[in-house]
Fold:
Amino acid sequence: MPSAYWQSYQTERKAEVVEAARMLFSRRGIENTTMEEIADKTGIGVASLYRYYVTKAQIAVAVGIDYWNRIEKAIDHIFKSEAYQAKTGMGKIEAIMDIYPLLLQEHRDFLLYLDDLDSFILRNNIQAKDLGRYEESIAQFYGPYIEAVHEGQKDGTIKKGLDEKLLFISVNQTMMALIRKMAHGEILATNSLYQRELTLVVEMIKTYVRS
Structure:
């Protein structure tokens, strides 16, 4: 059994690899970054890198998990605040919806990486069984969201009979897809409507959920 020191050392090294890869991926993209470049950026040999991560895909997924963990830490204070706790169920849903524009304003690098990672996963046919931990990291809004729906149905601010899991998946995927598209900037003339589109979608969701 590995010693506690060795386990700690490996954990630190893996974190260093993830941080080095994150910087390289953000500049060059996942596909255009080599394992040799990641090893060099980390300050270790390529053979050592392969002891921590067997494939670049594993590193790319680890960076994705790290990004989601960073987001969780960045927004956790919202859910713990007295102002949030004092809201009705619908008020909490509205506060959660306000997080998406915040991600666009303050975490554009995260949104761009998600697009790059999704493309990399599809191109390299990475299987769902290899994305379990990544999928878990994505679901961080799920707990507060379901809690808000239940509270809203009790206090009368949210309609009853909703398929809460389907609603969460639909809302989260719709909002994430929209702000990820917006993170790339305006390309076509119609892209100038992005902000109004975001506002409209948020209002449609609120109207659908509200009692």
Summary: The mean pLDDT is 91. The radius of gyration is 20 Å. The longest helix spans residues 4-28.
